[in-house]
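User: Structure tokens for this complex, please. No commentary.
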Amino acid sequence: MAEIKKEHELIVTVSPHIKSEESTSRIMWSVNIALLPAAVMGAYFFGPRAVLAIALCIISALLSEYIYQKALNKKVSINDGSAFLTGLLLGMNLPASVPFYIPVVGSFVAVIITKQLFGGLGYNVFNPALIGRAFLLISFPKLMTIWTKPEAAFVQFDAKTTATPLGILKEEGLSKLIEVFGDKMNLYMELLKGHRAGSIGETSAIALIIGAAFLFYRGYITWHIPVSFLGTAAVMAWIFGAKGALFAGDPVIHLLSGGMLLGAFFMATDYVTCPSVKKGQILFGIGCGFLTMLIRLKGGFPEGVMFAILIMNCFAPLIDRGFKSKVFGALKETKAKEIKK
Amino acid sequence: MALATFKGGIHPPDKKELAKDRPISEAKPPQRVVIPLSQHLGAPCKPIVTIGQEVKKGEMIGEPGGFVSAPVHSSVSGKVIAIGEFPNAMGRMVNSIVIENNGKEEWAALKDNPDYMKLSPEELKEKIKAAGIVGMGGAAFPTSVKLSPPKEKPIDTVIINGAECEPYLTADYRLMVEKPNEVIEGLKILMKVLGVNKGFVGIENNKPDAIEKMKAAAKNEPGIEVCALEVKYPQGAEKMLIKATTGREVPPRALPMDVRVVVQNVGTALAVYEAARYGKPLIERVVTVTGEGINSPANLVVKIGTMISELIEQSGGFKGGAGKVISGGPMMGFALSSLDVAVTKGTSGVLVIPEEGVVHAGDFGPCIRCGRCIDICAMGLIPSMLSILSEKGFYEEAKEYNLFDCFECGSCAFVCPSKRPIVQLVRLAKSQTKP
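Assistant:
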């Protein structure tokens, strides 16, 4: 809105005349920083190809945004950290082995189709990085499910392939998974460290938790979505996770594998595509957790985080309407009448 | 013990340290005063003096133009030299009376009442009305009207608003520290006028000495409770203050009297006391002149009609380049386009923000739906949607989001990371549609 400068060079604007230090770009860059530990662990386990894939995603996300905004004569906003974040998240959601055109295509779909064509930052219905990934998974199902062994650190360019823990769990069951990792304790430890096959940035639970703790500390995310998401998933894993018996599943394996933590802390919490009302966020998180486990346990894919979040994204505006907060005093109208009497 | 408060709210830096230790002092008497005939909500006054006429200090110069109105009085003794339109602090032209000060400080005859508590409620109310007292927290609603609720709306509680939740301002704080007994007397008068036994003084907990002083002043008054409130903006908003002190919630679009409460500001309580005790009309008030852009912040007793430029001069002038000069506090005050406007009954402060401290309004981004504004909105609204709907011209739809329940406290615009001018957009929508 315009400022008016008049005599004495006084500036005239509408109140309030002070504002908090918080800014959109500070939030976005903080999320980028929070993702760094997990990205670094991904680079450590999956080697130079992982670094290249992430870098390509970021560069092509930034370029997509820049070219689109230049072409449409809009203000270029690549400095706000949001396109960078989309690129980084997409990269962290890819297998390290993808050929180099995959990040470019994914970033284009994420930034231009999912975000800019819907009106740019703030107006997209779906999480851009997840639509990018969903597009790639559906278009290039083979390439998107080749998982390299997490042993390629800084040496090999062409690594051996293997299955992800969730893949093994789905195809061969829990006992096989434990057998692959030696014993159950070792399995937990390796999942915590991230020494397992999977998307580049999703494997290291510890690194993701450190990043999420930073976001909690800064107040950029609240407990509502992660706790309801992970809580629902854990309960479902416990009740329905074991074959042939109820209440015998292992929730820890489910929470620490796949994209569960990356999704719950960093993608379901995306401001733009999750509900804004806190109570609604709890329902949103429950939906995400439920759908994730439904897909993992009953669906055709071993992993369901991505689709779960995308489906719940559709409901976010509706949830916000349903959980619209009560206006101050509105609920108490009857009580107010009582007071009057 | 948990402090009394409401749900939501923000914690802006309070900046009270700039002026809080400056005792109240008299401002230099101005050469002339420009007294607007409309300083309050409601009908403007009609001038009852003519150009050239000599007037005394405290003499009525404008009579109320209706029920919701309050008379205005001369704040100096001297000669009426002009009656005409002058800009007020909001930039509007307002019919005003200009009086040249003869410096003699000659008072009009005032009626002293040492036994004011023996007067009947009606007599007291008449004195308050004749003194031209209005709400001095900013809205300037005629006090006598607040004290005349319709019969079907009985009142059982009077609350004195000592929250002063606007950052920087310290006028009410100084009054509570320096004149606690007078403020409590004012409250007792208000309680008597309304025939109630329960009085509260709500004070934010960042003013412990004010709480202590007020508690001491009220210690022999069993009906009066001094209530420490959590430091949180907008704690001093009427509805939030009533919630914090009494637990009652004023329903949407309703008034405090609908929950049997009347709220008055600290300065107003003092004016009520002075009107009842000395018959003194409201011709001066305490104004906090403060901000990082002023050389020596002060709490000044200022005659109504004094130019804001004179207050700035007396406070050592601007420190560096003045970027913004605000009448009132930083959250709800309005930026002045000219310093040649008069202090009115509702002017609680003059805040100078230096050029480098100005938050520019030009750059704002799209709403990223972070929900911060929803979390902090004291009224339980969805400011983000209001701003988006208004921005796109959907003013009618904004009503579904309770547009008219917003009282423009500015908390949402304060926390918005995209720096969206939410208050401005809300005002735009309000102006384009009807409740």
